[in-house]
Specification:
heterodimer, A: about 550 residues, mainly alpha, 22 helices, B: about 300 residues, alpha/beta, 3-stranded antiparallel β-sheet, 12 strands, about 35% helix
Chain lengths: ~550, ~300
């Protein structure tokens, strides 16, 4: 048996990760040391446990992410194995074994070491083997999934992953399966799951290499053209219109379509999976035992907690996924592609086209979310139920106008989506803000034993410092953009409009807060939007992309 | 957006560019005259693409200046780029588009887009307009890029390694005829290549680049007239070609040597006579011979400097 290809593939993976994986362990050790120090300074046991779990989860997440990334071609954003691997004259099982075995060893090893570190240094109360077992199962599942796909793209990735997870969720909802898992030997389960996934991965890779599932997502192309709109039959009236069409077809349609997909999956998929396949209750009934009931979907929708949480989840997940995808796409964020930079159009217009399309895209996404919200209310009313969507949001603000509360909620969703689809532009502003507030926040944390302690002047200073840093950066960027003449009046109008959204949201929050300052709001020191300094900082995050994007395009054109 | 009167399509003066420690362009000056085919020749890494990127405004001159029809492409991209049809070396075209979508999109930027000519090119290049660009072969992608560069009939066509990916038949019969067609209409073509026969076949003007320097820039006919391939016979065997003013390169052994000269043959003949050498044959060299002699000499010089 010739094992040399497996060894070569293992070696290649080791070479690509040999610095990062030990780095994760070292990082975990440093974080644990910091946590232990904080504990000595008096950080309470509960907070230490939460922080320790967070450290462990981040470490495992990083290890899984790094191991998954060596399969992918980052610039092409393809989740499957690269073609150069598929074309290797090596048997399917050997390729799968080489990649999965490395995943097991690397992720399992790093997770086990991190778990031991967190248990020993930070006193986390858990069995050490749980973390590596879960991490290995997660990695194996992700690997088995990606090996069967060729160039799936992010939407197909999300859809297939959710479809893949649905039976798992369903299985976990079955008492018999749960009982079996509870009674089974954990070592046996830990070994059986990766082996089963190994077999699935070999079959998936076999089908992939034979081209059996090359075009499995056939409707995708047609759907994308339908959603994003075909090219107009007549010629574009101006270069700007052509560029707007390009931006919409390339990027703009992705956020609304992702939101639509997620909405369907969440509001139809989740109740169906958890409810129709038996033995569960509604969320409001406290998950008690109950026979399957077709009205379960209606029960889910009438649950305001799940509706509002669902909308939040959909907005955040969609915008983060789309923003992350665009960030990873080579050359997207500063428009560094030769094709775009050599178009006979001014930098100001080139940049404005993207700003305009992204703002329309975000607003359309928001309209979808608001539409669903309205639809649910109508559905409830038609079913004879009380329309009470705002009730959940209004908890503690009973005296305030429900429309104002809903408007604040919608405004917040918009802000989150807009900031997330500009990961680079908003990211820098966010990092600057976080770095500026970090020292004072850390002092506050330690002095007050966690973020929910007594009011502290430190955080007030921190927020003021962070906002001052952001405001200074914003002023500098604005000055540079004006000097380079890359800010179009329309872009400035958009910036002003978004600033107004922020002001309106702030005013509504203040209006809602004032009638009942004690209700359902954290203490004074907690950074909620009533704080004017925090509001100033956050509102600049919304404006940052409008200023920084033209500057980045300008830089790319003047290298 | 008016052009400067009598402005040359491309005018480069003292252009230099450094990438960290590597000097990519070293004080390059050249003018591309109106209505000619200008071939930019050089081996890989000579600086051809860097020069073209400056022309397209993708790089800003670190020193010197560059004008396209009197406009600086880096500071005034709208005016400069609107007059250029460009095919990039990396064939950077949105891969998700179909060919007809790319044509319609590109058309939006160029008011002078000639729909009939575009259809004609589509047929000549045997492209299916409904095909997605990501499914095209390398050659088909190059043809698509070429179509978009030519169909708006720009006064200046800039092609960076246009032959890359094209087979010999397409290169000879389609690319070259398209290039000549542009020039015959009084428009200008600037193209880079490392294929000497291709440059020789279609160019009116030639610039030879080596290590970021412009070694030679002139009309092809003037370059040919200025060089002669000689066969020289000496009375006694020579260990190496004797250093002679006007001789660029020696090749041979014993008594019979081949030389490439850059000065009038009569002058060289007189100098060789003093060295007991006699010219027995005289011919016009090919561009390949001139290029190799020029670039080879530079190699020798740099090696000598290094040693």
């Amino acid at each position: 048996m010739n094992l040399s290809p497996i060894l070569v593939l293992l070696q290649v993976q080791w070479l690509r990760t040999r610095w990062v994986l030990p780095g994760i362990v070292l990082g975990t050790a440093s974080a644990c040391a910091g946590l232990a120090f904080a504990q000595r300074l008096g950080l309470s046991g509960d907070n230490v446990q939460i922080a320790a779990y967070a450290i462990l989860l981040v470490s495992i997440g990083l290890a899984v992410g790094i191991v998954m990334m060596i399969h992918t071609e980052i610039d092409k954003l393809s989740a499957g194995l690269p073609l150069r691997i598929l074309r290797l004259p090596v048997a399917n099982w050997k390729i799968v074994l080489a990649f999965m075995a490395y995943g097991w060893i690397a992720v399992g090893g790093v997770s086990a070491l991190c778990a031991l570190l967190v248990i020993r240094m930070a006193g986390l109360e858990m069995h050490w083997w749980i973390a590596p077992s879960l991490a290995v199962c997660m990695t194996s599942a992700a690997q088995a999934w990606t090996y069967s796909l060729r160039d799936p793209g992010p939407r197909a990735g999300v859809v297939t992953f959710l479809l893949f997870m649905a039976p798992v969720v369903w299985l976990l909802r079955q008492d018999a399966a749960f009982d079996l898992l509870e009674r089974a030997n954990p070592w046996l389960v830990g070994a059986a799951v990766p082996l089963a996934l190994f077999a699935a991965a070999v079959l998936g890779l076999r089908a992939n290499r034979r081209g059996l599932i090359d075009h499995w997502f056939v409707p995708k192309a047609a759907a994308s053209t339908w959603v994003s709109g075909p090219i107009p039959g007549r010629r574009f009236r101006s270069p700007m219109r052509a560029q707007l069409w390009y931006e919409w077809r390339t990027f703009g349609w992705q956020l609304p379509s992702m939101i639509a997909t997620m909405l369907v999956l969440y509001f139809l998929g989740m109740p169906l999976v958890t409810g129709m396949f038996g033995g569960t209750g509604t969320p409001e009934a406290g998950w008690s035992e109950r026979p399957p009931d077709p009205s379960i979907v209606l029960d889910w929708l009438s649950s305001t907690q799940f509706t509002t949480t669902g909308l939040q989840l959909v907005a955040v997940a969609s915008s983060v996924l789309v923003g992350g995808y665009l960030f990873m796409k080579a050359g997207y964020w500063n428009q560094s592609s030769t094709h775009l930079l050599t178009q006979p159009i001014s930098t100001r217009r080139l940049a404005y086209a993207r700003i305009s399309v992204f703002s329309k895209s975000t607003m359309l996404g928001l309209a979808l979310l608001a539409g669903v919200m309205g639809l649910i209310n109508l559905l409830m009313i038609s079913a004879g139920e009380e329309a009470r969507f705002a009730a959940f949001l209004q908890q503690g603000y009973d005296e305030s106008n429900p429309y104002a509360v809903v408007a604040f909620y919608i405004g917040t969703l918009f802000a989150v989506m807009w900031v997330a689809v500009w990961p680079v532009n908003s990211g820098w502003a966010f990092v600057a803000y976080a770095v500026a507030i970090a020292p004072a926040a850390a002092v506050d944390w330690l002095a007050n034993d966690g973020p929910m302690g007594e009011a502290s002047p430190y955080l007030g200073w921190a927020r003021a410092a962070g906002s001052a840093v952001l405001a200074a950066g914003f002023a500098f960027g604005f000055y540079r953009a004006l000097r380079a003449r890359v800010l179009s009046p329309l872009a400035m109008a958009i910036a002003l409009a978004f600033w107004a959204v922020s002001v309106a949201a702030f005013r509504m929050m203040v209006a809602a807060y004032i009638p009942n300052p004690e209700a359902n709001l954290p203490g004074e020191h907690f950074p909620h939007p009533v704080d004017p300094w925090l509001w100033l900082g956050l509102s600049l995050l919304l404006v940052a992309p409008v200023i920084t994007h033209p500057l980045l395009v300008h830089q790319a054109r003047r290298r | 957006m008016n052009d400067a009167p009598n402005a040359a399509p491309v005018e480069i003066t003292g252009l230099s560019r450094r990438f960290r420690t590597k000097l990519a362009l070293d004080n390059v000056s050249l003018t591309v005259p109106q209505g000619c085919v200008f071939g930019l020749l050089g081996e890989n890494g000579a600086g051809k693409t860097t020069l073209i990127k400056h022309i397209m405004g993708l790089l800003v001159p670190q020193s010197g200046s560059i004008k396209v029809f009197g406009h600086e492409p880096a500071t005034d991209p709208e005016a400069a780029l609107g007059r250029i049809g460009y095919l990039s070396e990396d064939r950077d075209i949105p891969r998700w588009m179909r060919i007809y979508e790319l044509m319609r999109y590109t058309q939006g930027f160029y008011p002078k887009w000639d729909e009939r000519f575009a259809e004609e090119l589509l047929r000549t290049f045997e492209l299916d307009p409904s095909q997605k660009i990501k499914t095209l072969s390398l050659g088909q992608t190059a043809k698509t890029g070429l179509l978009c560069a030519l169909a708006h009939k720009p006064p200046l066509v800039v092609l960076d390694e246009p032959s890359s990916g094209l087979d010999a038949v397409v290169r000879r019969h389609i690319l070259h005829s398209a290039i000549r067609h542009v020039a015959e209409e009084g428009r200008t073509v600037l193209f880079s290549s490392h294929l000497l026969d291709e440059v020789e076949r279609v160019s009116d003007y030639i610039a030879i680049m080596h290590s970021g320097k412009l070694l030679l820039c002139d009309r092809l006919s003037a370059i040919r007239d200025g060089h002669r391939r000689l066969i020289v016979v000496f009375d006694a065997p020579q260990a190496q070609g004797p250093p002679t003013p006007g001789i660029l390169e020696w090749e041979g052994k014993g008594k019979e040597w081949r030389a490439l000269c850059t000065q009038p043959v009569s002058d060289v003949r007189a100098r060789l006579a003093t060295l007991s050498g006699k010219i027995v044959e005289e011919a016009v060299p090919s561009l390949e011979e001139i290029f190799l002699a020029r670039v080879g000499k530079k190699f020798d010089e740099s090696e000598a400097q290094a040693s």
